[in-house]
Amino acid sequence: MSKIATSHEGRLPLSRILWWALLVGAVAVLLLLASRSAGAADEVSPAAHALAHRLAVGTCGTCHGPHGDAGFPKFPRLAGQNANYLAAQLKAFRGQTRGDSDAIGYMWGMAAQLDDATIAALADFYAHQPAAAPLRAATADVSRGREIYEHGVESEGVPACMACHGPDGHGMADFPRLAGQHAQYVLKQLGSFQSNMRDVAVMHGVAQNLREPELEAIAAYLETLP
Description:
Distance between the termini: 67 Å
Structural class: mainly alpha
Number of strands: 0
Number of domains: 2
CATH topology of the largest domain: Cytochrome Bc1 Complex, Chain D, domain 2
CATH class of the largest domain: Mainly Alpha
Helix content: 55-70%
Order of helices and strands: HHHHHHHHHH
Largest sheet: none
CATH superfamily of the largest domain: Cytochrome c-like domain
């Protein structure tokens, strides 16, 4: 007799069949996603990279600087940003699912005609640009920001920012680099998370429990990071 438990009709129990079906299905989905990811990378041709370079310098550079080191505090620095994050945001702009005011006013139109290959090439371009120098020197007024970034605010249920964005603010996996970012831009995005204009559940949960002085302190601290 088989060691595998069977029903009185000699068949595997329904629960065991369902479990195996779910397992096989999950593996198949993972393999499909991996093959699609690899295929997407292969689709980025030299022509797409050349187009992305022209767009980055000649068009995107108007606001973000020719190499992503934006000089205007209204616009984010993109140099050294994580490629996965940049690609995801460009696709969100294109799909009109990222809803902060600057996204609607600027980026929805800018990203509307970008295909996946160009988005991947743009993300790769910025990810390989050297990050610009910090925007301000560390001073006593950013110490509270560092404390929140590194330890969170336990009494308010706010986790440490570095849990997702890294101890150095350089981001991890699909989480963005924050180091050296303009404080004005960071504050505006935190406000968008608070209001759910940017509909990101994790960041809404973090931002809604922080007061304005705490938000300002975090933004000021991030400007000091290289």
